[in-house]
Design brief:
This protein is of the alpha/beta class. The chain contains 13 helices and twelve strands. The protein has helices at about 10-15, 20-35, 50-65, 75-90, 105-115, 135-140, 160-165, 190-200, 270-280, 290-300, 300-325, 360-370, 395-410; strands spanning about 40, 100-105, 125-130, 145-150, 170-180, 205-210, 240-245, 260, 340, 375, 375, 390. Strands 2-8-7-6-5-3-4 form a seven-stranded mixed beta sheet, sandwiched between helices. It has a three-stranded antiparallel beta sheet with strand order 9-12-11. A two-stranded parallel sheet has the order 1-10. Bound molecules: pyridoxal-5'-phosphate (PLP).
Length: about 425
Amino acid sequence: MPTMHTTQVSPHVRNLPASSTLAVSAKAKELKAQGVDVVGFGTGEPDFDTPAHIIDSLVEAARGGHTHYAPSPGSPECREVIARKLRDENGLPVEARHVVVTVGGKEAIYLTMQCLIEPGRGDEVLMVAPAWVSVPAIIEVCGGTATWVSGTIDTGWKITPEELDASITPKTVAVVINSPSNPCGTAYTPDELRALAEVIARHDHVTLVSDEIYEKLMYPELAPGLEHFSVGSMPELADRTITINGLSKSHAMTGWRIGYLATPAGDGAFAAAAGKLHSQMVSSIPAFCMPPIVEAIENGAPAVEQMRQTFARRGALMYEKLSAIDGLRCMKPAGAFYCFPELSGCFGRTTPGGVKIEDAIGFCSALLEEANVAVVPGTDFGPTAANCCRLSFAASEEDIERGCDRLAEFVASLR
Ligand code: PLP
C-alpha cells in the first residue's frame, strides 16, 4: 500500500489564532439562521450602506473599461487625491509616490510589518493597548514578537509617556498607536499624542505606526474639544511614521477593501518597498475601485459627517444604558464606534441557565446563549482588556435599546 501523504500546514500559520471577533459573529449568525432573534453588537463595521454617489462611480468605472490590471500602488489620480488629503487635512509631508493603496487597512498594516520586521532577528513591535486583535497576529506571522504597553479602565484606557519609554527595548522596531481606538472607543488628545510621539522621537531605532482608520469617527459631542491629530505631521517624526488609513469605517465601505499607507520615510524608499511587496502579492486593488476612491475623498464629506453625527447619538445612548447597569463599569466613548465595559463585577456569579461566569469569554457566550445578545470578549485585545467586552454601537437605536435592556436583565439575573 502506498503511504498517503497529507499536506502539513506550516507551524507559523497553524499556530496563528483565529480572530475572536469573527468567531462571535459566526456563532451569532448560526443562532440567527436557526430563527433566534439575536441583537448583534459584535461586528466592527458601519451598518450604513455605502453612499450612492460612490456606488455610481464604481458602476461608471466598470462600464467605462476599468476592468483590466491597474497600476499596482494605485492609479496616479488616486494616489494624488490621497496625498492631497493627507497634506491638507493631516499636515503630512507626503506626495503621491509616498502612498500605496491597499486591500483594506489590514493589508496596509501587513505590508508595514513585513517591511519592518526581519524574521529571526528577535524584532519586537510594541502595541499601545488595548489594541485590535489582528495586529499582534500580523506581527507574529511576519516573524516578530508583539509586546504590550497597556492602559487600564482607571487611566481612561490610556498610557503615559513614561510607561511608553519604559516599554521600548533595543529590540523594538516599531510602536503601533491606534487612536481613536478599537476596542476601547477612546481617543488620545493631540497633546497626549504629541507627548507619546516625543518619546518615540528620542528612540531613533523605532518607527511609529499610526493607525488612523477611525479618524473621521470622533465625537466632540461626547468628549468636548476632542480633535484628530496625525503624529506624522511632527517634523521630528515625519520620516519615521507610517500612517495607515482607509475608507472602510469613514465611508461605510468595509466590503470594498480599500485602505492605504503613506510615508515619506527613506525619501520614499519605505513606500516603494511596501509597493513592491504589494505588487508581488496582489498586484493591485480592483481597477474599478480606483475612481470611487477619488469620488469618496473629493465629495464624500457630507455623508461621512451625517454618519458621524448618527454614531455620536448612538454612542451617547449606549453609554447611558450601560452605565446604568450595576456590575459593569464603562468609559464614555470618544471615537470609533465601541463601548468597552469592564465585567469583573459579574465574575463568580451564576446565570439562570446554571453557568458559573469565570471570565469575559464565559460572560459573552452565556449572554449570547441565554439573552441572545452578541458582544466580543476583550480577551484578545491585550493584557488589561481580558475582563472586558466590546459592544459596537454601529447598530440602530432600537437595537441599542433592546440589546442593552437584555444585557441589563441578564446581569440582574446573575446569582
Ligand atoms: N485598524 C483597526 C484598528 C481596525 O479596527 C480595522 C478593522 O476592523 C482595521 C485597521 C482594518 O480595516 P479594513 O481592513 O477593514 O480597512
